[in-house]
Every structure is written in structure tokens, then in C-alpha cells.
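Lecture 7 notes: from sequence to structure.
We start with the chain below.
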Amino acid sequence: MERALGLMCGAGALPARVAREAKRRGFRIVAFAFGETPGLDGAVDRLVPSSVADIAAVLTGLRAERVSAAVFCGRLAAQELLQARGDAAGEAIVARGGGGLSDAGLLQGVLGTLTDLGIEVLDQRPFYGDWITRAGPLGGRDATAAEEVDVARGFRIARRLAESGVGQTVVVRRGRAAAVEASEGTTETIRRGLGLAGPGAVVVKAVAPDNDYRFDVPSVGPETLEVMAAGGATALAIEAGRVLVLERERAVEIADRHGMAFVGVAGDRDGEA
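Predicted C-alpha cells for the same chain:
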């Protein structure tokens, strides 16, 4: 008997990719769509339009379809659960998660609720295939020796930044950090950092060692590379096995077109485990 997978879909194209890989792995897929999900309808066994304002209906659907595993994907923010006011099931999740004071608390509320239903929440990464970074050059060239020095410096900073829960991205030029990520996100950090550093900087993205890949897969994509090219950056380095490259083929093409190095870095490349 096929195992039923509940695909909890935020907006964007990622759910369709996850669905295709899940189907290849033999799952029967029931998709609960919380946003616009192009290409998803033909890739799943059942598509259920859903709302964070009616979590009770989602839980009923999971039970009815005998879902035993779930994967979260697409753009779906934990804080959207706060819209569930007036929905007893949603309010119970929020209360279980500490009242919505933090994303981590809300996600623990979701996890506990699904666990009570006998549903295992799976790591997203196996369902993204080669969009999860491998070690080494992803495009046409590797980092130069000078870029490697800045990459190593960037990772030492970015890993500490990620461990602290502040951000994941650092812009470095000639050994000096021009910008570190805070609440503005990767793209705005890059734009700000390149505005300060000028041409020739590198961008590094690291991930906290305890990142929960059931709910969050840090990513870069074509927009990241376009912003870097506009600001004169020469290299993007991201953690191998831990960062998702959205629209990988297009992202690599942009890097190659602008002569940028685009590399996946293993944990020990900067001298750290």
C-alpha cells in the first residue's frame, strides 16, 4: 500500500518540484495548497485548497486521507498561523507554540500537533534533488586564490552569525566584512554590502548547525545572482548540502554569463569542521 504524503504547500514553484520527486519515490500525494502553486495540480493525486484561517479543515483532511508523513515547501511563514484566530484548531497550535512569540515556538506547535496524529514531518532536502548544493564549482569557474581567502573569512563570520540566529549572509572584500545579514534578508544584505564594498567583493551564505530542515531550507537563486552582478560581486559561496539553489540551471547561467564563481563549500574548506 502506498504511503500517503501530505504536501503542505506555500506559494511558488517549489511544491511542484517536491511533488514530482515524491511521486518518483512512490508516495501517494495529497497537497494542501496555501497559496498559488503553479504546475502542482497535475503532479499530485489530490489537491486541497487550504487556508491558515481554517486549520481544522486541514487536520480533518489529513485524517481522512490517512496521511502518515508530511513535507512543508514553498513560501509559508510560521507567523501566518496567527491568522487562525477564531479557529479552535489553529488557536490550539498557537497556544501550544507559546502564543506566537517566536517562529520556533509556532513550528513546535505544528510539529506536536502532527505528531499527535501519527504524522512524521520529513526533511525537505531529499525532495529537491540536485537543487541542493554539492561541493565544488556549480558553474563554469571555481573561486580564485584571492577569492578563496575572502570566502574563508566570510564563512568564519557567517557561521557565527548563523549560530546566533541573527542571519546567514556576509559580504566580504579584501578580508573585511562590508555587510552582515540582519532582518532585511539575503538580497538586501548583498545590495547594501556591495554598495559599501564596491566591485570585487564575494558573498558567503552559511547555515546554523541546528537548522531544522523540516521547516526551513535556506536558499539562493537567480535574483541573488542578478543583484550580485549588478553590484560587481565576483563570487558566491554557499554551504554544500545545506543550501537550496532555486532554478539552479538559470542561476548557474547568470553566474557564468557575468564571469562569477559559484561554489558549494564543504564544512572543512575554511578550516572548520
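Points to note: The chain has two domains: 4-127, 130-265. The first strand starts at residue 4 and ends at 9.
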